[in-house]
Structures are given as C-alpha cells and as structure tokens.
Write a structure and sequence with these properties.
397 residues; alpha/beta; Rossmann fold; Hypothetical protein af1432; 5-stranded parallel β-sheet; 55% helix; binds fe (ii) ion
Amino acid sequence: MGIYATPPTTTATNPMDLNFELTKSRIMIVDDEPVNIKVVKKYLRDAGYQHFITTSDSQIALGKIRHEIPDLVLLDVMMPHVNGLEILEAMRWSEQLQCIPTLILTASSDAEMKLKALEHGAVDFLAKPVDPSELQLRVRNALIAKVHQNKLADYSRQLEHEVSLRTAELVSSREEVIRCLATAAECRDKETGNHVIRVGLYSGILARELGMDEYTASLIEQAAVLHDVGKIGIPDSILLKPGRLTAEEINIMRQHCEIGHRILTMKDDERIASGMRSPILKVAATIAMSHHEKWDGSGYPHGLTREHIPIEGRIAAVADVFDALSSTRAYKGAYDLEQCFIELIEGQETHFDPLVVHAFFNRRNEIVKVYEDYSDEPKTSFASHPARIDNQPVLVS
Ligand SMILES: [Fe+2]
C-alpha cells in the first residue's frame, strides 16, 4: 500500500463482510452468577457469535481482560469482592484496555451508578433480566463501532510504517547526493578513494567526543564530506598541476573555501523562503569556508583565530589534515600513524584547537579503525617521513 492509499471506508462496509467480521469478535462476559453468563451466551450464540471468554470471579476478571484483550466486555456491576465499576475504572487507566468497549449489565436503576459508569467510559447499559433482542442489537452496535475503530487504528499504523519507510529513503537519498557531490569535487583532484568519507567519519567521532548531541554530531559528520566541494571551481591547470604552485596559483587554489561556501549557500534566500533550508548544507557551508583557518590566525581565507573559527571548521581541520597526512597522494607518500600523531600534537595551539586534538587522542582507537576500514587500495605506505616534494605544502588540500 502506498502512502497515499485510500483510507478505509468506515461508512460503506459491505454488510456481508461486516456480519462475517462481527461473528469473529471475541466477547467477554463477567458476571458473578454463572446462570446469567449461560443465558447471555445463549442469546449471543443465537445471533451468530462464536467466541466467548467468561468468568464469574470478579477478582480475576481484570487479569483475564488484560490477557485476552477481547473485542467487547459485558460487565455486571453488583459483584462481591471487586465490583464492575472498579474493573471499569482500572480499564480506563490502562492504555491497552481503555479502547475495549464495555456494556454494563445491571438490575439497578441507580442513576448515580449509571453516571459513574458513563464517566468511566461504559458505552451502554443493559437492564437485567436481559431482553435477547435488545442484547443482540446493543452488542452489535458496540462491535460495529469497534470494527471501524480497529480499521482506523490499522490504517494509522500502516501510514506510520509507510512514513518511516519514506523518511528512511529520503535520508538515504540525501546522503547519496551529498556523497556524489563530494566525490565529484574529489574526482577532479588528485585525492582519490575514500578521503571524503573518512573526513566525515573522523569529524563525527570528534564532534561526539566534544560532547555534541547525536543530531549535531551527525550533521557535522555528513556535512564534513563536502569540505572541499569548492575545488569544482578551481581550474584544472592549477588543481592538476604536477609541479610547484606559484604564489598566485596558491591564492587561486585557496579560493576553494569561498567557492565551496558559495555553492552550498546558493539560492539560500529561496530555500529559506520555501522553508526548506537544509541544516546539513548550512553546516557544510560553514565547514567549507573555515576548514583551513588556523588556531593562531595564520590560516585562510579570513585569518580567524581561536574560538572565532567555527567549531565545525576546527573539527574538520583536524580530520582533514590527519587524513591528508595518513593517505598516499600523487605528490607524497603516507605518513605512518605515529608520525601523523606527532604532527597533530605539534600543531596544537598553532594550527589546531587543542581541545579538538585532545578529543582526537581520546578516540584514537575509533579513528584508527575508520582509517583501516576505509583505507584506499592499494594501501602502500612508501615513506615514513615523506619528502615534501618541491615545497608543495602537503596540507594545502
Ligand atoms: Fe580544503
């Protein structure tokens, strides 16, 4: 059934189907006089009902109702030990039992008792001695209402299920689109493989260690994969240049931060106006702009210092640099992990927020697991201390 499936018809059920459905109903009869149970049962059997649960012991009645979950309860009021009103009241306090329609059987004309029974949710009364026709009609009416109520509940459950399926599909599609966009940028670069995935996962781990709630950490994890999306806008002659970049080319290369920010905030006004501003793209834009800022203010594009750098950017900086150091690139080999750790420690207070570096080492095992699980193939570490070829900054990414 699709999400826009036709809702159940509650007014035009085929009478044959309805009668068949009613005969399947499970009716519970609670009366301290076994003979009364016998009579009521006989009248209902005559009307085609087949399934009964009965008890003449009021003390076990509630437990039995809870265990059997009947479609209808016929409840005597005047019973020893526990009277019908007490059972009815207990049912109304139970989420599971409060939907079960209850008909009160009473020989009393006590108006106050009837009022109380109605207050506790009784749907109808039947005077004793019971008239068979009246009994059959009142039971039928109560059960018809219950059948419709069940159909609506089923429909509601189906809708909830469909909505959760569609939501999961949307989340999955969104993640795919984000990864495709990130990979598109990455494919233009010499960086290959799982770089963006690793940077995302490292960032998520760091965000969680820094005490962020799961929603925020997950946003950062997904958004960080787009940190270098602005490289789409860098000319091939610079992006793919094998040799050393000139000062001017480095400046152009550095524009990938602003380009990325522009891509990710494009038509932002329109998105806000339509109420569809994506929190992930918002965080991604922040990361794109700030992941090359440095703690001491020597980074780019704005030379921000310390806490002026958005925390998302400070997190992505550590993730990105660790990944650049620990991966093989066209212009350099991969550092071994110990050397990467030394670089991060040495970069505290200058390049990196020390708290983020601290978080990195608190979660070092988790980070190394991502490094191993998502390593690029072939995984060849050809230099413990790789030469930084032709003065090309290893960390320029
Ligand atoms: Fe970058």
